[in-house]
Amino acid sequence: MNPNAEDRTQQFLEHLDDGHMVEADDWMPDAYRAELVRLIRLHAVSEIMGTLPEKEWVPRAPTLYRKLALMAKVQDEAGHGQLLIRVAEDLMAPRGQNREHIMEDLFAGRQKFHNVFHLPVPTWADAGLIGWLVDGAAIITQGMLLGGSYAPYTRALRRIVEEEAFHIQHGESICMALAEGTAGQRAMFQDALTRWWPALMTFFGPPEDGTARSAAPGAAHTSHQAANLRFRIRTKSNEELRQRYLSKYVPRIRSLGFVIPDPTLKQDPTTKVWTYQPPDWEQWRAIITNHGPRSAARVNLRHTSYAEGQWVRDVMSATRKAV
Amino acid sequence: MTTDEPGSVADQMVPTDQGELAVYEVFAQTSERGTVEWQASLLAGSPAMALMLARENFLRRREIFDLWVVPRDAVARAEGADELFRLPKTYREVSDYQYLVGKWRQYHQQAMTRDTMA
């Protein structure tokens, strides 16, 4: 880095420390752009891939009301993907890249998406649990990101968070019906909770203390976290988010009489800090690098629909030709 | 508007540029007394496609009173901070005249005191 760039970076950091925002056309350090692109691509693709587990339940929803609400939710998630991909594209444009590169990377296994969307959704309770507890986790992350320094991302997030509020109520409503339902329905929800708990505990990523740092070369999750905090792209650590999540949802889950499959889970009454069984971070890494149970099937499905939709994109963007 | 009229929505659906999808900025008026405000940007092949995507992607849940899509290339923007910076001209601000409130309070007080004395 030449001295001039160093000075500019210093000025940029001071600008951030003073609480100012950054716009797409502003000068920004390469590292800031790279962290933003990485985060927003991950978010955008997670929204898009997140439609796939839920859409599996659209044809099997138990009532017409549930089917319509689930379709509306799936449509919202696709819309969030559209919003976020535009934000990412404006950042990627100086590198000569656009959404095609994001999709190509996804199909080639180079683009990550959230661990929860690599997993199977065997029952209606799993679909409800995604709406309640996965979206509940997502809104905690997104609420935190609203305080970020990159203005175009925060503008997109405001819109997204507004719609997520509907998603959580939708998920809660499904789970509440099961909780107040027959013994069979309660057992179905309990099974889903037992299945999903490890994935929920890893949703926010590894803690900052380095205990989960992989021995594998190239494992740099915590350094991204530190860089994002420094750039005020994020304002809380993974562990702070997980603690907030546990404080919000553990009492609710228990109040419905369900058992969280972690006998060590407890909150210190004075410090309010939750302790829990350390999740299997190696398994989490395997899942997000496309070695999850449904990773290949979902990426293939997305690839197929992208290929089958090519003619639509061609028609909508085709040069007018003499026929 | 029927599809036969020139300039109809169906006519606009046919892309008129060189075949590339373009970035459109989306603006909407979301309340009857409100102003038209920027909402989002999107990628489309024609203004009609941009309108359709804007409605479907961003404005499903709210009543809207007006909707504009503008190709980003058509927007003229100020160059940046230098052009946007305004010299402080406090005589343009209401806050510069706030002392009047105190003055009036003082005069009312004096008048009331006078009345009481009388």
Write up this protein:
The complex is a heterodimer of chains A (323) and B (118). Chain A is built from twelve helices and two strands. Chain A is mainly alpha-helical. Chain A has one domain (21-206, 222-317): Up-down Bundle (Ferritin). Chain A has a two-stranded antiparallel ribbon with strand order 1-2. The longest helix of chain A has 29 residues, at 64-92. Residues 213-220 of chain A have low confidence and may be disordered. Chain B has one domain: Phenylacetic acid degradation B (Ubiquitin-like (UB roll)), CATH 3.10.20.520. Chain B has helices at residues 9-12, 47-58, 81-84, 99-117; strands at residues 22-29, 36-44, 66-71. In chain B, strands 2-1-3 form a three-stranded antiparallel beta sheet, with helices on one face. The radius of gyration of chain B is 26 Å and the shape is elongated. At the A-B interface, helix 3, helix 6 and helix 12 of A face strand 2 and helix 2 of B.
CATH class categorisation of chain A: Mainly Alpha
What is the average per-residue confidence, as pLDDT of chain B, rounded to a whole number? 82
Q: Largest sheet of chain B, if any?
A: 3 strands, antiparallel
- Roughly how many Å is the radius of gyration of chain B? 26 Å
Unreliable sequence segments of chain B: 1-18
Counting copies of identical and different chains, the oligomeric state is heterodimer
Largest sheet of chain A: 2 strands, antiparallel
What is the assigned CATH homologous superfamily of chain B?
Phenylacetic acid degradation B
- Provide the spatial order of strands within the biggest beta sheet of chain B: 2-1-3
Please provide the ordered H/E string of secondary-structure elements of chain A.
Answer: HHHHHHHHHEEHHH
| Strand content bin of chain A | under 5%
Structural class of chain B: alpha+beta
What is the second-level CATH architecture of chain A? Answer: Up-down Bundle
Instruction: Give the largest interface.
Output: A-B, 21 and 24 residues
For the secondary structure, the number of strands of chain B is: 3
